Amino acid sequence: MVIILNDNEMSIGRNVGGVSRHLSRLRSSGHYLKAKRWYREVMKKTAVGRAAYRVTRRLKNRLKRFLLPASLFENMGFTYLGPVDGHDLPGLISLLTTAKGLAEPVVVHVVTKKGCGYRFAEEDPAKFHGIGAFDPETGKKLAKKVKSYSDSFGEAMMELAQKDDRICVITAAMPGGTGLLKFMREYPKRFFDVGIAEEHAISMAGGLAKQGMVPVAAIYSTFLQRAYDQIMQDIAMLHLHVILAVDRAGIVGDDGPTHHGVFDVGFLRQVPGMLILTPASLAEQKDMLSWAAETYNGPVAIRYPRGGEGSYRDSAWQPGENVETEGLLCCHRHGGDVTLVTYGSMLDNVLEAAEILSQRGIEATILRLLTVSALPAREILTEMSEKRRVIVAEEVCTGSGIREALAWELRKLCPDCRVDGVDLGADFVTHGSTKELYRHYGLDGESIANYTQGVLS
User: Fold this and answer.
1) pTM across the whole model
2) pLDDT tens, position by position, 325-383
3) Do the Cβ atoms of 204 and 192 come closer than 8 Å?
4) Per DSSP, what are the bridge partners of residue 196?
5) Which of 88, 87, 79, 71 minimizes the C-alpha distance to 108?
6) Which residues of 271-307 are buried (b: 16+ CB within 10 A; e: fewer)?
7) Do the Cβ atoms of 268 and 225 come closer than 8 Å?
8) What percentage of residues in the chain have a pLDDT greater than 90?
């Protein structure tokens, strides 16, 4: 078995931790690697030089094995080869050929530079890790910059930290992606990047909460899955005051199938005592964060999408004393023919669907859930249209949302209620832009309107 370790000193953000430090000690300097490449190229120009190069290379390797301490990998039973310059193709092929011929497990330590060959990517590798369309001449993004939910989250955390010394932030190798670079610089003693170790991030948050801090763990929805056991055992079971900032909830667009955040509602709703909040605007996100940090005293998850807010810019966050058990609802429109229920970033699409339905002579009531842990069934029953037909539109995979639970709660109160719904289906969500995927899965405004009209007919 041959393991190739691509060591560019980065994960997405700068690497942290003991293994990273160990690799730094093993890693040759850039000057050394360049000198080694120059020496080989010069020596191989003549037959005498090639013979001398082979002799000196064998001598160097023997001295290295004799004089230097064993690496972490050798202590684990691997033969360690490297480091080698990953941008020197002949040298890399030579080492890989050697590794292939060995009859034991091998680690090939390849040193590369993230973004190598493109100046702007070399200068800011984190930015270019998952960049959209950009001008290759300037390195600047082509799309106009809008304030994202991640940017808004970072600003809100700065304000909270200024007011309360107990506020601290944990992230898993994503300080830039989660909007926390400024917080990291301003409050280094209250910022913890644990690397790609979401499980540790959540357990650490629990420990900090036990010691009187107010930890906020900012993690992408798709990566939060890794820490499910820690959420259950180390936070919820102890009912600790930990805030989960669930970034990239829902469809994430061009980041692809592995990054869509379409399961968190399902697995977080299973956790006893976990309050799940779903803002539909930047103002609402900020209000929820402030309330979660300053007023609430238990585990809470605030899920928000990639990108900026939609047409709704207000905040309806005015929780009552029993928000954990009764939930919170906002009515955006009244109509007598059907009730559309949604939450979070799906609001714009549902509002568009209501406009299209109205043009077709169908009037819809639009109800938005601000919490999806507790479902305000009685309030929904009070607000819904006279015809008792409910359509739930949500940006999750089938079985990972609230439709089934809401149908159960409503049928207990209103046996003649019928609940249908649209979602992303039962399979993994494919690759595409957010707009393309909404259309593909029937979650854009026109598709929701067509589905609703079909159900009613």
Assistant:
1) 0.81
2) 888 999 999 999 999 999 999 999 999 999 999 999 999 999 999 999 999 999 999 99
3) yes
4) none
5) 79
6) beebbbbbbbbbbbbbbbbebbbeebebbbbbbbbbb
7) no
8) 66
Span 84-109, pLDDT tens digits: 888 989 888 988 998 898 888 988 88
CATH architecture, range 328-456 = 3-Layer(aba) Sandwich (3.40)
- The CA-atom distances, in angstroms, between 140 and each of 14, 135, 137, 242, 352 are 22, 6, 8, 37, 33
Sorted by where each begins, the domain ranges of the chain are 2-120, 149-317, 328-456
Measured in whole angstroms, the distance separating CA 162 from the mean position of its chain's CA atoms is 26
221 neighbors 248 (Cβ within 8 angstroms): yes
pLDDT, average across residues 105-128: 83
Domain covering 149-317: architecture: 3-Layer(aba) Sandwich (3.40)
Q: Provide the residue type at 143 as one letter.
A: A
- The answer to whether 149-317 and 328-456 have equal CATH topology is yes
Place of tokens 């900090």: 208
- What positions carry a catalytic annotation? 114, 198, 226
